[in-house]
Design brief:
Layout lengths: L4 H11 L3 H10 L4 H19 L6 E8 L5 E9 L2 H4 L2 H17 L11 H16 L5 H19 L5 E2 L2 E5 H12 L4 E9 L1
Antiparallel strand pairs: 1-2, 2-5, 3-4
Length: 195
């Protein structure tokens, strides 16, 4: 099937993927742009998962200060090469992550990094709330486990819903950037300041 050049250009503008990849995706989907976007995203995420194993030695410290000048954040964002580190899209990703830290105030980068002390405090709060309900002990323990897992997901930067698009998690945004830029990207430490 011959794919018109304007269709390839349209798909490239929407996805920023190479022309060859766009043409292959359109041929694979019979010229349907929406299906081609899904095919490219799937292929890109598969590629991103493979790239997550590669070493990151370059990067930037991104920052965001809210317009009221009373809250701000800095985030370490790592990549493989200084070429990508100087890329405007990479810098925009860093700023989005810093903005996320300002808005959502995560406690850790990943769920497993939230301190046991903090998790125990939350479990004790949940336990005292649930014991008042008069439910059986095994149901209370399952509910505590579920609430604790939800707490971890909501309070870890990578598993939070993205403030600009709540249908996506931060880790999805990062994987999308990996697929688009062709390099492993890792989120490091962050800090939040508030007056």
């Amino acid at each position: 099937m011959s794919i018109p050049l304007d269709q390839i250009k349209e798909l490239r503008e929407k996805t920023a993927v190479s022309i060859a990849e766009c043409k292959a995706a359109l041929e694979e989907t019979g010229g349907d742009i929406e299906k081609a976007i899904l095919a490219l995203r799937k292929r890109g995420l598969e590629t991103a998962d493979r790239k997550l194993k590669r070493e990151t030695r370059e990067g930037i410290v991104a920052y965001y200060v809210h317009t009221n000048k009373k809250v701000g954040a800095m985030v370490e964002l790592f990549c493989e090469t200084d070429f990508v580190a100087r890329n405007l899209e990479f810098e925009a990703l860093g700023k989005d992550l810093a903005m996320q830290v300002v808005a959502a105030n995560p406690k850790a980068t990943r769920p497993e990094e939230i301190s046991e002390k903090e998790l125990e405090q939350e479990k004790n709060i949940y336990r005292s709330q649930l014991e008042k309900s008069g439910k059986p002990a095994e149901i209370i323990e399952k509910a505590i486990e579920g609430k604790t897992n939800k707490f971890k997901q909501e309070n870890a930067l990578l598993t939070q819903a993205f403030i600009k698009d709540p249908t996506q998690k931060i880790e999805d945004i990062v994987k999308g950037a990996i697929a688009k830029m062709g390099e492993n990207i890792q989120v490091g430490r962050f800090c939040r300041f508030q007056i």
